[in-house]
Amino acid sequence: MDARDLFSAELARLEESKTFKYETALQTAQAGLVKVGGRKVVMLASNNYLGMSNHPAIKKAAVDGIRKYGYGVASVRFLCGTQTIHVELEKKISKFVGAEDTILFSSCFAANEGFFATITNEKLGFDNYKDVIYSDRLNHASIIDGQRLCRTETTEKKIYNHADVGHLEQLLRGDQNKDYRFRIIATDGVFSMEGDLAPLSDLVALAQKYTAMLFVDDSHAIGVCGKSGRGTPDHFGVLGNVDVLTGTLGKAVGGASGGYVSGSKELISYLRQKSRPYTFSNSLPPPIVAACLASFDLLSKDRSIVGKLHDNTAYFRKEIKGLGFAILEGTHPIVPIMLGEASLAQDMSSALLKAGVYIKGLWFPVVPRGEARLRAQISAALTKKDLDRALEAFQKVGKKLGIT
Fold it and tell me: Catalytic site residue 35?
């Protein structure tokens, strides 16, 4: 059997097992309402939390960025791929998240891989050393893949139960007398399948108690959590107390692409010298950098955007529960609507699209077996009328499929 036959057989298996992922093409820009198949539908599947991916000020900044700095830089940072706007954006992110310095990557996936591999695989003056990473069981794939790049002979990896501070402390206490070079606690700030937040205040306290480095991927929190949108540290009142913050520029902040690592000046300077995804990847294109600068300016000057997102989220969460749907409780714009089986999630997603709502299902292996769901993602780009239209569709489809 050749490679083509192997791929075909696996694709057939995925379709039969109801785990095949279908893509739907949008005919318009990303927004609260999008056009699919010639019809306008309510978008409830986007990471465009603040509506910035199609915001007039952001689009203007991107166009101005092209006019002044060009379409791309055709180089990596240390050769000739650093423009003044790259440095300006790194300073702006640092100030926004309460860190000393920031380094830009092509994505947060690359940032996470770059951090873990660089920190653990370099000797840093040690001929013989051992590091340990304590990772939340539900961490994002980019954190998991980043840790897979760490050499097994020098890095131990220990999994703690999801958001279980007691279990984490048990592991830390058990290793207290071991001579590790680095102890790293790694967690998502917001867990993208559940929409719940890491217990960041407790994690900060544990990191300080056991002299560990606290790493937080705040991709679904930057621009979203906290009154000023500064992420989970803002939400929990520990801004400036997280050792390493990573995040994306491809969700709430602009919605295009790009990622970053924020931390101490020494850490960031070291990553500039040693991190392979940074050293060997082209710089972020000027229009993206310019648009992200405008996004952070908007966030810093106008808190009403974040406020509207929070209001929309609270309204949708209250109303969808009132219709009889089971959701995972929380405050984040990610609202998991629990259905159980993958086939039901697929059927409901398809029926809702016909009823005017774009929403996608999640099932095994993305989530545990028997915990298939629709993941609603609320945006500040949605009006109350949009939300009510979506809720009406949920009510009709839920009754038709016997869910409510």
Answer: no
Q: What is the per-residue pLDDT for 381?
A: 97
Query: pTM of the prediction?
Result: 0.95
Catalytic residue among 86, 92, 140, 251: 251
Catalytic choice (46, 94, 142, 192):
192
Q: To the nearest 10°, the Cα dihedral for 19, 391, 327, 312?
A: 110
Strand ranges for 137-176 from DSSP E: 155-160
Residue 57: count other Cβ atoms within 10 Å of its Cβ: 13
Q: Mean pLDDT per 10-residue run, the chain (404 residues)?
A: 91 83 90 96 98 96 98 96 98 98 98 96 91 97 96 96 98 96 98 96 98 98 96 97 98 96 98 96 97 96 94 98 96 97 92 97 88 96 98 97 92
Tokens for 13, please give them: 């298996």
Q: Is 330 helix (H, G, I), strand (E, B) or coil?
A: coil
Catalytic residue among 86, 140, 157, 220: 220
Contact 205, 153 (CB under 8 A): no
**Cβ neighbours, 10 Å, residue 403:** 18
Domains, the chain, with CATH or none? 10-43+303-400 (3.90.1150.10), 56-301 (3.40.640.10)
Active site residue 130: no
**Cα 130 to Cα 162: distance, rounded to the nearest angstrom:** 25
251 flagged as catalytic: yes
SS3 assignment, position 127 = coil
Beta bridge mates, 160: 136
